[in-house]
TrEMBL record:
This is Transcriptional regulator, LysR family. GO terms for molecular function: DNA-binding transcription factor activity; sequence-specific DNA binding. Belongs to the LysR transcriptional regulatory family. Pfam families: HTH_1 (PF00126), LysR_substrate (PF03466). It comes from the Bacteria. It comes from Jannaschia pohangensis.
């Protein structure tokens, strides 16, 4: 499967539509449909579920997505490396939830800064929604796409979360064979009245009890779980850097969310636009790399 095939795959996966994907790829929907059919034949698997609501990824498509995104990011990074001195000068402030700010952005921004030494980058890591209209940040990474304001929003990538606990905790408290077994265990999670995005209500989706140990910070929750405080939902991209943690109910519980990147519609000009492109590529590549480590 070559890059041109993966470009077609990503265009449809990100928009969920032949019409929208065609506009992004500058192909008419009929041509795009033929390309998708040919791609699925070459892959030997259905990559999309087609319905009146659009194109949704199948399980095979979900498996292909992070690899396609990583290849896209490497291709763009190569182009950027050839033109590192492209006039990116100034300072850009990036707002992000603390999980992605602590575990994904450091490597991404270090590489970006190495390529563009005249570009200053600020990271504001707060567990809340940023107000781009008030210029709290130039770019904001969010889970749910913002709906209010004159914003330009793009979908970055899917990421995954798993139930996890420290192996020492499980050795003392006993294994978890079913979701019903969770009722007999300590739970770590978000402070219920401080969940600022409905997509962060992981425990409600898993069916676990209210947390005995709670924080508004995903990184603090990880620390509580590593300390043996109980079972909680952990980003897969954090697991590679958390020795001692093991997945709980891995065949039954794995959540999928998506990151989105937003900027104000009239803010920043070429500097913000170009930085947004490079940031998007870097986040996709780093999430795919870390998730691959967590299962390897």
């Amino acid at each position: 499967m070559d890059w041109d095939d993966l470009r077609i795959f990503l265009g449809v996966a990100r928009t969920g539509s032949l019409a929208e994907g065609g506009r992004a790829l500058r192909l008419d929907p009929a041509t795009l449909s033929r390309r998708v059919t040919r791609l699925e034949a070459a892959a030997g698997a259905a990559l999309f579920l087609k319905s009146p609501r659009g194109y949704a990824l199948t399980e095979a498509g979900q498996r292909l997505l992070p690899h396609a995104e990583a290849m896209e990011a490497r291709a763009r990074a190569g182009v950027a490396a050839l033109s590192a001195d492209d006039g990116l000068r100034g300072r850009v402030r990036i707002g992000a939830p603390d999980g992605v700010a602590n575990h994904v952005l450091p490597a991404v921004l270090a590489r970006l800064r190495a390529l563009h030494p005249a570009l200053g980058l600020d990271v504001v890591a707060l567990p809340r929604v940023f107000d781009l209209g008030r210029r709290e940040a130039d770019l904001a990474i969010t889970v749910s796409p913002p709906k209010a304001g004159r914003l330009r929003v793009r979908r970055l990538c899917d990421y995954h979360l798993s139930l996890a606990a420290h192996r020492d905790y499980l050795a003392v408290r006993g294994p978890v064979a079913t979701r019903d077994d969770l009722r007999g265990h300590e739970i770590v999670g978000y402070i219920p009245d401080m969940i600022f995005d409905a997509d962060l209500d992981y425990l409600g989706e898993v069916g676990a009890n209210a947390p005995g140990l709670a924080s508004n910070s995903a990184s603090v929750q990880l620390g509580l779980i590593r300390a043996g405080g109980g079972i909680g939902v952990v980003h897969d991209f954090m697991l590679a850097a958390a020795p001692g943690l093991v997945r709980v109910l891995p065949g039954e519980v794995r959540l999928t969310r998506a990151y989105h990147l937003s900027r104000h519609g009239d803010a920043g000009g070429p500097l913000i636009s170009r930085t947004a492109d490079l940031l998007a590529d870097g986040v996709r590549e780093e999430v795919a790399r870390l998730e691959a480590l967590s299962v390897g």
